[in-house]
Design brief:
The chain has helices at 5-11, 15-24, 35-38, 70-79, 82-86, 88-94, 101-126, 130-137, 143-173, 208-217, 234-250, 255-280, 286-294, 304-318, 324-329, 338-371, 383-395, 400-433, 441-455, 464-474, 478-506, 513-540, 554-568, 570-581, 604-607; strands at 192-193, 206-207, 546-547, 550-551. By secondary structure, the protein is mainly alpha-helical. It has one domain: Amino acid/polyamine transporter I, CATH 1.20.1740.10. It has a two-stranded parallel sheet with strand order 1-2. Strands 3-4 form a two-stranded antiparallel sheet. Helix 4 runs parallel beside helix 16, helix 7 (101-126) packs across helix 22 (513-540) and helix 9 packs antiparallel against helix 24 (570-581). It is globular. Mean pLDDT is 84; it is low at 1-59.
Amino acid sequence: MCVGLERVRREKVPLSLILFVSSANVEWLAPFENMSSEIPLNRKPQIDEDQHSKSSGGEKQRGHWENPFDFFVSCLGYAVGLGNIWRFPFLCYQHGGGSFLIPYFVLLLVAGLPVFFLEVVLGQYAGVGPVKTFALLTPCLKGLGYGMVSVSALFTFFYIVVVSWSIWYLFASLGTSLDWSTCDQYYNLPTCVPVHGNATTITNATASVEEYWERYVLGFDQVDSWTHFGYPRWQSVGTLFLAWTMVAFSLIKGVKSSGKVIYFTSFFPYAILIILAIRSFTLPGAWMGIKYYLTPTWSHLLGFEIWVDAATQVIFSLGPACGCVITLSSYNHFQRNCQRDVILVALSNSLTSVFSGMVVFAILGFMAHTANKEMGEVVQDGPGLAFIVYPEVVAKMTGSNVFAALFFAMLISLALGSIFGGFETIITGLCDEFPTLRHHKSTLVVIISSVMFSLGLPFTCPGGIHMFNLFNESAPSWNLIIFALSEVVIVAFFYGTDKILDNIEEMGMTLNWFQRAYWTKCWKFATPLVLVVLLLAAWMNFGHIQYMNHFYPMWVQVIGYIITGSTLCWIPIFMVPTLIRSYHTTEFRTLLQPTTSWTGQSYDSCVK
């Protein structure tokens, strides 16, 4: 059960709630055996926030996922994002096609999966967000939880810009024609070449899709830079406001209100991806692109870079060290089989990346075929793939408006799924630290959304692409590696792998000898080694931030490191006072040990 008899007596839990919790304590797949009769098809995921029971401190209880499937859907929606669409395929191309899959899945087993599972276990066992989890697990490193929440805040702050760009393109796709396919717009240059034009007849020709993206959507010109940033553009401000409005309305009542859209944002991209796959696989040159994507170049496996990129993709794709995984799992029932969830989410995320790569390379194969170019000449990653390459390809298809609208609706859905997780991490962190805020969640959501929208106005300037690129490279950076490494070291060498494995079995999961050996060896040896190598590789790459093959000046690179450091500073901020207060009374090692409040479902510690 999620609550012990003593807690039931103390907190005066209603009899109906006890019966509900008792009946819910089953394997998580059991409710789906008779889905047609037990779970309506339109059932929305939500957290039991309607409980009227109170904790001993008089605060509203956090609740749990109502539907056993909700946690899996939420984690899947958070993990599967734009990186699966525009980063993974590019890495496959860069590192010899199918040969990249070997280090990817190897490092998934020894690094990605162990860190992901560890965070799910910590969140489910403690029943609180990252701030309180680490305050209870290791008081000296309470700042680690704050660092994770700050990463989620920065990520949500800049990642919403992708939604605003996608909204712009979605509206443009609803017209009678695609504006980026022609050169008769006011922003086009004399050297503009339309999608169906011939660039060989014009000197220094520029594609109409590039001019639409750079000169119209971004308002960007070659003179726009960090020293000529420009002013907010009303069109960009409008789409950014609409993006924040979507987030605020979706989360206005916490995770319960987001449950109305979480199934949509999680599964809608798969439906669109399948539709795009059916269309792209039938295009001329598609199989040339797929063959290029899957054909391995075994010599690449001998290089160091392919292993670093594979490990980076695995870690960043699953999304640990941002606090979101701990936040989502903290709403699980205590005896949920989260090990099964972790394996299914990680496998689904990886297979989504592989399938997305096939779709993307089928489209790129078609583009290379129609343009009579080599595959290497049409491959891009990041925003260039989503807002330049694909719009050009879709303009050449029959029914271009429909496929363009579907694609950008998919981008919006993918980005929102990740943003919801990050935003909920911020809210949960604040409410766990200040429980009285739990009664004012709606106001808190509106205030945070309004503040982030206001602070994000520089993204709407012509030079805003530089600011986005800087945050994209700096906010989720080597700080995440430090956070993940800290988690693993704390559990493996201070808390103890035997204790965490006992906690797992305390939550009702039975581990055989192989599973115990696998998790132990990974947490103690393999995972820390991979994370240390990644950290050293990141530090060796100092001053690497660039845009369009132009490196930013050193002062901008320093700002990037300040952004990264702003998430790390929380660790010494909380560690130093703790050490000073305990210098004459407590041994340092005890400050890395759990407090007496570290117990299963530790929510009571949050409201005392």
